[in-house]
Design a protein that fits this description.
Chain lengths: ~100, ~210
């Protein structure tokens, strides 16, 4: 879900996705893991990719969300918010106890 | 690959090892992956200034990286296949990753053996009527471990209870078991792909 979400605002290449996740969500993804995941998401038709020439002297493979990927991400985001709200309700008393015991 | 080798040599050696381990993939897929991983390493080293050893270590050993691509391909191909060999290979691969995979592999294996045995019984009954069938050593047929024996027997108990019905029951029952086994495994493989995508594999939360 995090990988799909990183592409919500536009296309990125692998290293940019890794850095985006680190800076925006503090999620550190094992670098060797991201590329097989992107490959799988592409095969599931959630992503498309294109090679783009860059100033670095070599082309980079950019990934974008497809319409199917956007729909799936919306569903996953809704499920995640419901889940985290439930866990939030569960741990609310724990935090409230901490506050009062201080 | 040694730390004293030049960065380009180390990159080439890493990509060559990766190419070898990606052999089961198509040439186009393999070259696309190598091009992307090569660009990643060069960006890490040239643009971000990461030492080559660190960049390669973060990607992990080439055989481990290649295995992730190969597993994805195997599970994807198997989830669309009807081949018992391919389906069992994919579940065996998933069995190395978790308990559910182990259970599905053994259920699948049992399903295929049972289904095939039943069909074989149905096929062989007309040719070997006295050696193929369902027997019981008791006067009433109760399905228990020391009760009826279904299949090919040379030294079987005295009471055969199905007779010629062994043919349709063996063929239809066997086909049904093979059908259910195949589609149960395919469903599991499809779900496993979705779970992997949802969970997105190893993530570290830096709090």
């Amino acid at each position: 879900m995090a990988t799909l979400a990183s592409l919500w605002n536009g296309r990125l290449y692998g290293l940019e996705i890794i850095r985006f996740l680190e800076t925006h969500s503090q999620l550190v993804l094992a670098e060797g893991t991201i590329y097989p995941i992107l490959n799988r998401l592409k095969n599931e038709a959630f992503l498309t990719s294109e090679w783009v020439e860059a100033d670095a002297g070599h082309p980079r493979k950019y990934y974008s969300l497809t319409d199917t990927g956007r729909q799936r991400l919306r569903l996953m985001a809704t499920a995640w918010v419901d889940f985290s709200r439930g866990v939030g309700n569960l741990i609310e008393p724990v935090l409230a106890t901490q506050e009062t015991s201080r | 690959m040694t730390s004293t080798a030049l960065p380009n040599q180390q990159i080439d050696a890493y990509l060559a090892a990766l190419r070898n381990h990606l052999a089961p993939l198509t040439l186009a897929e393999r070259e696309d992956i190598l091009r992307e991983i090569g660009a990643h390493i060069r960006d890490s080293v040239d643009v971000l200034g990461t030492p080559i050893e660190t960049a390669l270590a973060r990607l992990g050993p080439p055989e481990v990286l290649a295995a992730q691509y190969r597993d994805g391909l195997l599970v994807r191909a198997a989830s669309r296949s009807l081949s018992p060999v391919l389906l069992l290979r994919a579940t065996l691969r998933l069995a190395t990753k978790g308990f559910v995979g182990v259970v599905v592999f053994f259920c699948g294996f049992t399903g295929y053996i049972t289904g095939t045995s039943l069909i074989l019984t149905g096929v062989l009954k007309p040719f070997m009527p006295t050696s193929v069938g369902l027997w019981t050593s008791k006067t009433t047929a109760v399905w228990q471990s020391n009760g009826p024996t279904f299949g090919i027997q040379t030294n079987h108990p005295p009471h055969e209870i199905l007779g010629w019905w062994a043919i349709p029951i063996g063929l239809i029952g066997g086909a049904l078991i093979l059908f259910v086994t195949t589609f149960a495994i395919r469903t599991f493989l499809r779900l496993s792909q979705k779970w992997q995508i949802k969970l997105s594999a190893p993530i570290v939360f830096r709090g």
